[in-house]
Amino acid sequence: MAQERTGVSTFKGNPLTLIGPELQVGSQAPDFQLNKSLVDVVSLKDYAGKVKLVSVVPSIDTGVCDAQTRRFNEEASKFGDNVVILTVSVDLPFAQARWCGAAGVDRVVLLSDYKNNNFGEAYGVLIKEFQLDMRAIFVIDANDTIQYVEVLSEMTEHPNYENALNAVKALL
């Protein structure tokens, strides 16, 4: 049975239970299986040798998630081919593709944790009460070691964009 952590994060002040480990800087990044489409599945090894900024959002169709993904899409052009920005949510791949088209987002890779929440559980951000992934940022170096972690204490708040981007820049 997976570890549960209550009170780490909240939704509008109400405590949430996060399922999975509390990942730390210096830990090896857990592998994952995420859907790029209904049939295409990717894992951590598909981004081997790259710096990975993993932006986790509860649902792409909400204001903060929309703004977070747009911000990282804008920043992506400042990094070279050795950096990939992944946005993970439990939204269906259809919804992610529709949102990207409508928003003009083309530099961030949207990946879906909808099938079995294995990313959320492996990264300790699966919200038991909602079966969504908690807003978080992970920066993973080219050797798959976690170099930056921010799991938001309040689901409706923005992450610290500058700290996350500076963590990526420090690896280049």
Automatic annotation (TrEMBL):
EC number: 1.11.1.24
Catalyzed reactions per annotation: a hydroperoxide + [thioredoxin]-dithiol = an alcohol + [thioredoxin]-disulfide + H2O
A Pfam match: Redoxin
Matching CDD domains: PRX_Atyp2cys
PROSITE patterns the UniProt entry points to: THIOREDOXIN_2 (PS51352), TPX (PS01265)
Active site: C65 (cysteine sulfenic acid (-soh) intermediate)
Molecular function terms from GO: thioredoxin peroxidase activity
Leader sequence residues: none
Enzyme class: oxidoreductase
Record-annotated Thioredoxin domain positions: 23-172
Family annotation (InterPro entries): Redoxin, Thioredoxin-like_sf, Thioredoxin_domain, TPX, Tpx_CS, Tpx_Peroxidase_subfamily
Coiled-coil intervals: none
Keyword terms: Antioxidant, Disulfide bond, Oxidoreductase, Peroxidase, Redox-active center
SUPFAM superfamilies: Thioredoxin-like
Assembly with partners or alone: Homodimer.
Described purpose of this protein according to its UniProt entry: Thiol-specific peroxidase that catalyzes the reduction of hydrogen peroxide and organic hydroperoxides to water and alcohols, respectively. Plays a role in cell protection against oxidative stress by detoxifying peroxides.
Similarity comment: Belongs to the peroxiredoxin family. Tpx subfamily.
Official protein name in the record: Thiol peroxidase
Provenance organism: Paenibacillus sacheonensis
